[in-house]
Amino acid sequence: MPDQALRQRAPLEALARPGRFGATSAAAGVMLSEIRDRGLASVAARKNQRAALLAAAKSAFGCGLPTRPRRAFGRDGLSFVWAGPDQWVAMLDHGPVGGIEPRLAASLKGLASVVDQSDGRAVVRIGGARARAALAKGMPIDLHERAFTPGDAALTFFSHINVHIWQVDETPTYEIAVPRSFVGSFWHWLTEASAEFGYEATGSNSSA
Amino acid sequence: MRIPCPYCGERGNAEYAYLGDAGVSRPQTPLGAALEGATLDAWMNYVYLRDNPAGAHRELWYHASGCRAWLIVTRNVSTHEILNVEAANGAIRDGRVGAL
Ligand SMILES: [Zn+2]
User: Fold this and answer.
1) What's the CATH code of the domain at B48?
2) Is the pLDDT of residue B7 over 80?
3) Model pLDDT for residues A155-165, shown as the tens digit of each residue
4) CA A161 to chain centre
5) Which residue does chain B place closest to A164, by CA atoms?
């Protein structure tokens, strides 16, 4: 009999203090939160199955898997972000724990390797009028609205930490997936970068 | 120096890791063969000997902080001009470069 029950914890649960921080002279320029109710899974095409996988995904999920760095939305809260040649990250909003892998695996059997990543990555949402300026301090890619728009995605780094970023809306709002063991350093850097603009942190937000 | 990744677009060289000459191929030596004569020469050449051209050079780069694809980059090593970039997996499949 275990004498201690293990409790599932979000990666930033102990680190992301909710509240208003940094400059207080104006409205918060940056809004930060962690998405805690989304299932993630990696999807990688099996050898010579690329065309069959794209066709199967389209009929099963209602959207094509993007073949360039973009995010595509399927039915029932599923979306897919390009994650390298013939690779994707599948996401399920409000996904039950462990729910995404079986949901994908049934339709993609033999066509793709599907591995649950829900515990392996943290997903941080950053939005607000100064979100772009805060990210520019640590990220080498151009996030200007002429170069990067809602639905666009990229694999790059932020302050030497490999990240996966995609844009949600024109606010601008972005979501950034970070390897879980790096998210403490990432959060430290992100909050320091946001401080001069004033930032508001909420511990969690729904992924809708 | 900026390298245009065929998958991600143009990125700074901080996102990449360099491996070396894309023109060398691992010798096809049977397991247990004696390392002497032509076999020894082939391994010596593969492991140690490299040309040092002043102009165009075909080399392997890894997009480590990006899509994690191996690329074959043809680069003028005197000017850093990037002359061509292609995915290494296609070149290996076509037999134009040896497996890594
Ligand atoms: Zn790339």
Assistant:
1) 3.30.2270.10
2) yes
3) 999 999 999 99
4) 14
5) B66
ipTM, two decimals, is 0.90
Whole-structure pTM value? 0.91
The answer to whether position B32 is within a domain reads no
CA–CA distance, A80 with A89 (Å, rounded to integer): 6
Question: Which tens digits make up the pLDDT trace of A116-145?
Answer: 999 999 999 999 999 999 999 999 999 999
**Residue B12 structural domain:** 2-25+39-93
Q: What is the mean pLDDT of residues A175-191?
A: 97
Query: Where would I find the beta strands (DSSP E) of chain B?
Result: 2-5, 9-12, 17-21, 56-62, 70-76, 82-87
pLDDT for residue A206 is more than 60: no
| Cβ(A114)–Cβ(A42) below 8 Å | yes
> Within an 8 Å CB–CB cutoff, is residue B82 touching chain A?
no
Cα(A198) to ligand 1 centroid in Å equals 34
Q: How would you write A120-150 as a 3-class SS string?
A: CEEEEEEECCCHHHHHHCCCCCCCCCCCCCC
Domains and CATH numbers, chain A: 19-36+120-201 (3.30.1360.120), 39-116 (3.30.70.1520)
- The two beta strands, A153-158 and A161-169, are antiparallel
Q: Which of A69, A83, A140 sits opposite B12 (nearest CB)?
A: A140
